[in-house]
Amino acid sequence: MFKIPAALTLFLLLLSCAGPKGTQSGAGKTPFLWQNANLYFLLTDRFYNGDPANDVNFGRTATPAKLRGFMGGDIKGITQKIEEGYFDRLGVTAIWFTPVVEQIHDKVDEGTGATYGFHGYWAKDWTRLDPNFGTEAELAELVDKAHQRGIRVVFDVVINHTGPATEQDPVWPSEWVRTSPQCTYRGYESTIECTLVKNLPDIKTESNSPVDLPPALLDKWKKEGRLEKELAELDAFFKRTGYPRAPRFYIIKWLTDYVRRHGIDGYRCDTAKHVEESVWAELLKEAEKAFADWKKAHPDKVLDNNPFYMVGEVYGYNISGGHLFDFGDRKVDFFSQGFNHLINFEFKGDAQKAYEPIFSKYSSLLNSQLAGKGVLNYISSHDDGGPFDKERQKPFEAGTKLLLCPGAAQTYYGDETARPLIIPGTEGDATLRSFMNWDELNGNSTRNGYRVTEVLEHWQKLGRFRKAHPAVGAGVHTMISASPYVFKREYRSKKFTDIVVAGLDLAKGKKEINVRGVFADGTTLQDYYSGQTLTVSGGKATVNSPFGIVLLGK
């Protein structure tokens, strides 16, 4: 399906980063809308190794279980791929990478072997980056390089828990964390005031009682020569805000520091349903203040007037639920507590359906009960053992449905190159977290009857179309014809209008697309899939290409 002739492989791979330019009607340039985001999600340690010199730190030399140790990916590696134009060619408008704060130093024994905190979700010190991932100077460079290309940066944040306790990583004081009971998920309280798993200390985010800093953290700062600086900054924060020195407010201060220093554009909030929803509103308030402070200090680097972005991982949230997530004994509106978007766990199932039922459903919900908010759709992720097309038999279909569906799109690293999601010898989520398959891409490997480069080219075209046209993700969907399947999307605001038409599962060769009532005769259009320029005549757009897809826009 949608197979690209091998003879065109090299040519298409070297296509211009920008592709055809979108020149929609209305004042000003094409706006960036989070509702139309093409967000690329990657595991920092598993994407690209830009600095092999930082691969081993803190004596992390034990042999871990398969795919459960550090493998070398880092901030420099992400920046290198930004500079190479990899994300531009994919039409990526935002990058979300797993947490890069300092992780526990030791390993833990899980299942059949040892695991290090390569994934970033086992914080030891929120105030410092883990040297395995890189330095703050490298983080600053990443943000600058991304912003120069109009790419936003989304920081993955954890407030719910610390890392596991080990011999090298003592448990935080009982005033800060609980170590039992373990969550049973039988209601609101048994989802929040509990530990997600054994030996994952849960921050007492519900507490307003002042607490002292952990002695181990103070000793660490002292050895690193920054104790006085950190304490002075905390004093200033609590004096400015008037917050009690409760656990969550320390972490909020530490997390928003990265926004104030570097201009981080948004947060992806980990384990959001395991924290009292009001905490996220508190985090957003301080993040917005930090974002405004950064913009004021760096007026020449400000991309636009978009507010600070927050997307929540409310595990199990479905778009069909609208604003509400049901804990069983309580329904909570996370959208009213700081979140612009929630990750949509329903899309991977919806992707089994035909195009029109998916697209019309999402357009209807996003332009009615979820108007002004949004969802982040995905087909695979780092911890979902039941992704769409786990065996990577349908990577072209997956890309088409994800990137053309209303709502924001999350590309998990390697979706665009059909990176395998079944790795023999792994246990649990590790099978989803192999190193990015650059070797297959560079070798133009063939798998499951397709070339990896062909998959990438397909995702690149769709992504650039989405990037150029806000109507794709943020517009109102209307089917033009069922057979052949042709639809339009229309986005209108006070300052900007954008209309596109797309045809899927079309005949190869010459095809006429009905655009009567959408584009006037004489209108010049681009087909973003074949790269052709054409003129509307007789209410039709005629395209002669070897592809079964047509993506039309001005």
Your description of this structure?
The longest helix is centred in the middle third of the chain and has 21 residues. This protein starts with 8 loop residues before the first helix and ends with a strand. The protein contains 16 helices and 26 strands. The N terminus is likely disordered. It is of the alpha/beta class and 554 residues long. It has two domains: 109 residues, Immunoglobulin-like, CATH 2.60.40.1180; 406 residues, TIM Barrel, CATH 3.20.20.
Quick summary:
By secondary structure, this protein is of the alpha/beta class. 28% of the residues lie in helices and 20% in strands.
Class based on secondary structure composition and strand pairing: alpha/beta
Q: Give start-end ranges of low-pLDDT stretches.
A: 1-27
Q: Averaging pLDDT over every residue, what do you get?
A: 94
Shape: globular
How many strand segments?
26
Number of DSSP helical runs: 16
